[in-house]
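Regression test case RT-17, inverse folding.

Input:
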């Protein structure tokens, strides 16, 4: 973790950040991005709209979503971008969002699970889940599974799951997944949710199999100046803002790896892996490649969100990552 931090610090401060260099156009393609009213998601939406995609941003606050659209369209007047209500902490909202997508669109070409929260105090979703795990992992798990039929309608679809180097602080605690029986530590809880994002990516690629038309990628965007710190203490906000001005990168730079995994042709034959700074990184902790834990997490997630059998995927124990 320390070595990774030093590497990222040097990349950010010296300017050793890579950009998505693909010139691919997306005319006619449908892109869905969660939490794209600000930060990395907004910059990702801006870029993909500029390439001609029809972009749908799922936002809890539709007013902020509309404000983001207006801002994007000031520079890209022809941007085909709309916002739809989505609260990832509510199964009902996720299901309604997925249903509306199915009613309006015949296919989805790119799904970017971008939204995320980090909370200083423990709280619960309307469904009784710990909020960080419920939003960052369970909400995106349910959304992804519900829209898989639309993704399958695309000749070649991609799913991008935003995670974080913070996964190093997390373990999947099956005995206390909702942090009910131990002191609440926001870094451990956030780390658990980000580790879950990686394990979900790996297990989804495994279950989709080699012949799937859908590729899936886990992305660490880098140390980015975003408003994820809005829920932290005042002191932490001040610290993060000062730190951000010195070593953190802009949201536009942070969006580059999301864009790389969403569109770059070089990744056509890769799925289930972790990427940062527009490169694949296989040198992760063993816990990120623990297939037993990934399968167990999948089964628990499907149970918690009451995933219907027709949306679930069977185990694929013979799959080999290439």
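Golden output:
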């Amino acid at each position: 973790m320390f070595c990774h931090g030093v590497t990222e610090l040097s990349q950010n401060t010296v300017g050793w950040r890579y950009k998505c260099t693909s010139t691919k156009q997306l005319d006619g393609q449908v892109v869905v991005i969660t939490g794209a009213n600000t930060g990395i998601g907004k910059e990702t939406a801006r870029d993909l709209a500029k390439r001609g995609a029809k972009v749908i941003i799922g936002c809890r606050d539709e007013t902020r979503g509309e404000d983001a659209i207006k801002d994007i369209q000031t520079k890209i007047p022809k941007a085909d971008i709309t916002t739809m209500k989505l609260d990832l902490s509510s199964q009902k909202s996720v299901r309604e969002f997925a249903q509306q997508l199915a009613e309006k669109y015949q296919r989805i070409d790119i799904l970017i699970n971008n939204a995320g929260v980090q909370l200083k105090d423990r709280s619960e979703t309307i469904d009784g889940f710990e909020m960080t795990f419920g939003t960052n992992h369970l909400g995106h798990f349910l959304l992804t599974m519900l829209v898989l039929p639309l993704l399958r309608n695309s000749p070649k679809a991609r799913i991008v799951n935003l995670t974080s180097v913070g996964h190093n602080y997390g373990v999947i605690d099956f005995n206390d997944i909702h942090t009910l029986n131990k002191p609440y530590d926001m870094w451990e809880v956030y780390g658990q949710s980000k580790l879950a994002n990686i394990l979900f990516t790996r297990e989804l690629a495994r279950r989709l199999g080699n012949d799937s038309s859908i590729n899936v990628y886990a992305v660490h965007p880098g140390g980015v100046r975003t408003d994820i710190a809005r829920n932290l203490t005042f002191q932490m906000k001040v610290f993060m803002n000062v730190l951000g001005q010195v070593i953190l990168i802009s949201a536009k730079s942070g969006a580059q790896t999301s864009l790389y995994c969403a569109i770059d042709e070089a990744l056509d034959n890769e799925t289930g892996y972790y990427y940062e700074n527009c490169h694949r990184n296989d040198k992760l902790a063993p816990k990120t490649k623990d297939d037993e834990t990934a399968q167990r997490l999948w089964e628990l997630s499907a149970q918690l969100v009451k995933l219907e059998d027709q949306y679930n995927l069977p185990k694929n124990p013979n799959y080999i990552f290439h």
